[in-house]
Design a protein that fits this description.
9 helices, 247 residues, 6 strands, Lambda Exonuclease, Chain A, alpha/beta
């Protein structure tokens, strides 16, 4: 009997109800309901209204966990202060003063806002000593705390670059200071989206080809500069934004 009912379900055209005599237990009806509910749930989960503006930290979240970003975009709620986003701020402020700049920052542009594991401000003296002993201490940046907004596929990406250095070959290097630990291989691809956005933004601000701009993370405590290869270009960032179905 069960085999006959399953065979009848298989023969049933999509959207057509079987006669009661062929579906006495309502299998076909229940199956249709479940399929419809699942389709509605998938559509609700995946389709969001992409805003006209995204912060760089949101772009990193999109690359790392698109479902989480979609949920936040679908139901935007005010966020309580995030202590992790503010960790490392004291070091960045010290570095700003050392480089002779003081900038006013928006909440989502706080130093370390895109960092998941920034060092606590209590470790400031340790971080200062590590930076002064490192390879970037004697280099003078061209600009620091550079705000930007660049458009990609109709979406404005906004953020702030920690420092931009002029290179001897005529190119540029955008550096983002990190006070946490270097990432593992699984998390690195999403994080490099931050550098891709910085690279594109500085190319626009400086009026140079993207290929003339390099971008790097410098992990202060470890004196380790990470220069990821094959950063996304304009087309890659566009594809990333388009990976979120809208509607």
């Amino acid at each position: 009997m069960v085999r006959a009912e399953l065979a009848a379900l298989a023969r049933k055209p999509k959207g057509e109800q079987l006669p009661l005599s062929e579906d006495p237990d309502g299998w076909a009806r229940d199956t249709d309901v479940l399929i419809a509910e699942r389709a509605a749930a998938v559509a609700k989960r995946e389709r969001v209204a992409l805003p006209s503006s995204l912060s760089v930290s949101q772009l990193v979240e999109l690359a790392a966990d698109p479902d989480a970003l979609a949920r936040r975009l679908r139901r935007p709620l005010p966020f309580p202060p995030n202590p992790v986003a503010r960790r490392g701020t004291a070091f960045h402020v010290w570095l700003e003063k050392r480089f002779g700049s003081r900038a006013l920052l928006d909440v989502d542009e706080l130093p370390g806002a895109a960092d998941g594991d920034a060092a606590p401000d209590a470790e400031l003296e340790e971080l200062k000593a590590a930076f002064l002993a490192g390879g970037w201490a004697n280099r003078v940046p061209h600009e620091v705390e550079v705000p930007f907004a660049c458009e990609v596929d109709g979406v404005s990406l906004r953020g702030r670059m920690d420092a931009v250095f002029a290179d001897p070959d005529g190119g540029w290097t955008v550096v983002d200071w990190k006070t946490g630990r270097p990432p593992d291989g699984a998390h690195l691809p999403a994080l490099t989206v931050q550098l891709a956005a910085y690279r594109l933004a500085w190319a626009g601000l400086a009026g140079v080809p993207v290929g003339h701009v390099r971008a790097a993370f410098h992990y202060v405590r470890h004196d380790h500069t990470l220069r990821p290869a094959d950063l996304l270009d304009l087309g890659g960032l566009r594809d990333l934004l388009r990976s979120v179905p809208t509607g």
